[in-house]
């Protein structure tokens, strides 16, 4: 009990650390503008970057030479009216070229006044909300995944949705792959990789876990993250370098997916098309979703075990029902045979009583049309229940010529006794 609680607390702490790493930093912007032309009296670099005026950075420059018309109109309105204004989710493009990124800010424009109360300028104070917006999207996606897991959605759907969410949420171009470990932990099977080419997924489906087997095989073997920043030069990728080249993959960071007891469940990999070193936010994102994948996979294993147990129980019930039906059939057949035997015995007893009551004829009845005057000494019968008395000669002829005829004399004990007389 204590160990489980410590594990739970540790997992919650890791999740909180991941969230802080992902969304714990925000950029504050500040500028003080003077006069009707809104001359930049002071401004921090974040403000200059936010309005896209890095090449015009400096003080003493009218804002009109740096900012777009919408910003000028809002600041002009505050300067004229003296009423502060808050502008939310202001979009800005920070940086340029491949390093450019979309950012969002909440900006407040406040008038500042001289000693007589007249407005002489505007202060711009704001904070970047990009991280907040990303956090909201991340938490929404994460909550949706947890709801899918709780609803027992198919594992393939959960993992595919998770991979697509991460690819959409990541600030840089990333391709996500999830591999699932075989029960023995010796091989990895395809789980989800919506953006990787089919030929690549087919080629790595079933790869062994072991030292130097790419990023994922090595991470699974070591039970720890493996970061390969440049596939073209890393020895772990020696056997897969050509395959990665065909798929246009240049970096791969793999994190093992582990069960609560430390058993290997699979790997979670983030691929990039250019060599890249992961930032703390990348590692936090990988750790967070590797934990989510572990939850989904463990839930799937539990469901499979339950289904297998239910199937075995159903098979046992079916076999028991079959055995009971067979026993009932055999019992019914036995009862039918017993009834038939009882009926036959009764008939035989009745026939014997009738025969016993019949008078013993004086002369042989087996002489045919010409008759026989010899004394009737022996009784013969057949399986049909017919019986007759005859002399020894005609009785012997009957036994030889009529099928299933036998001596019915109890005194002589049957045919054997007769022949040995």
TrEMBL record:
InterPro entries: GAF, GAF-like_dom_sf, PAS-like_dom_sf, PAS_4. Residues 154-307 form the GAF domain. Signal peptide: none annotated. Gene3D superfamilies: 3.30.450.40, PAS domain. SMART domains: GAF. It comes from the Bacteria. This is GAF domain-containing protein.
């Amino acid at each position: 009990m204590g160990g489980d609680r410590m594990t739970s607390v540790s997992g919650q702490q890791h999740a909180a650390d991941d969230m802080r790493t992902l969304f714990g930093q925000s950029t504050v912007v500040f500028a003080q503008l003077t006069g009707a032309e809104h001359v930049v009296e002071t401004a921090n670099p974040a403000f200059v970057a936010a309005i896209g005026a890095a090449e015009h950075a400096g003080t003493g420059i009218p804002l009109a030479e740096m900012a777009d018309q919408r910003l000028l109109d809002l600041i002009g309105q505050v300067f004229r009216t003296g009423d502060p204004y808050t502008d939310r989710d202001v979009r800005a493009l920070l940086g340029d070229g491949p390093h450019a990124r979309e950012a969002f800010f909440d900006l407040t424009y406040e008038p500042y006044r001289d000693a007589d109360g007249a407005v002489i300028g505007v202060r711009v104070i704001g904070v970047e909300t990009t991280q907040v917006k990303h956090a909201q999207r991340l938490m929404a996606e994460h909550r949706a995944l947890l709801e899918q897991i709780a609803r027992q959605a198919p594992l393939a759907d959960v993992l595919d949705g998770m991979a697509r969410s991460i690819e959409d949420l990541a600030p840089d171009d990333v391709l996500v792959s999830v591999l699932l470990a075989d029960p023995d932990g010796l091989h990895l099977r395809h789980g989800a990789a919506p953006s990787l080419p089919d030929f690549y997924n087919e080629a790595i489906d079933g790869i062994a876990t072991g030292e130097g087997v790419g990023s994922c095989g090595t991470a699974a073997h070591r039970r720890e993250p493996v970061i390969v920043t440049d596939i073209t030069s890393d020895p772990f990728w020696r056997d897969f370098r050509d395959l990665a080249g065909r798929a246009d993959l240049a970096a791969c960071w793999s994190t093992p997916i582990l069960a609560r007891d430390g058993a290997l469940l699979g790997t979670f990999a983030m691929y990039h098309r250019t060599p890249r070193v992961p930032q703390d936010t990348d590692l936090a994102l990988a750790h967070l979703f590797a934990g989510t994948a572990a939850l989904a996979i463990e839930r799937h294993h539990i469901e499979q075990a339950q289904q297998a147990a239910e199937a075995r129980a159903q098979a046992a019930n079916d076999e028991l029902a079959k055995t009971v039906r067979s026993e009932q059939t055999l019992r019914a057949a036995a009862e039918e045979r017993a009834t038939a035997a009882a009926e036959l015995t009764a008939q035989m007893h009745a026939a014997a009583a009738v025969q016993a009551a019949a008078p013993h004829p004086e002369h042989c009845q087996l002489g045919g049309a010409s008759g026989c005057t010899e004394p009737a000494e022996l009784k013969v019968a057949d399986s049909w229940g017919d019986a007759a008395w005859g002399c020894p000669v005609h009785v012997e002829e009957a036994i030889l010529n009529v099928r299933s005829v036998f001596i019915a004399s109890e005194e002589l004990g049957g045919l054997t006794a007769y022949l040995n007389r």
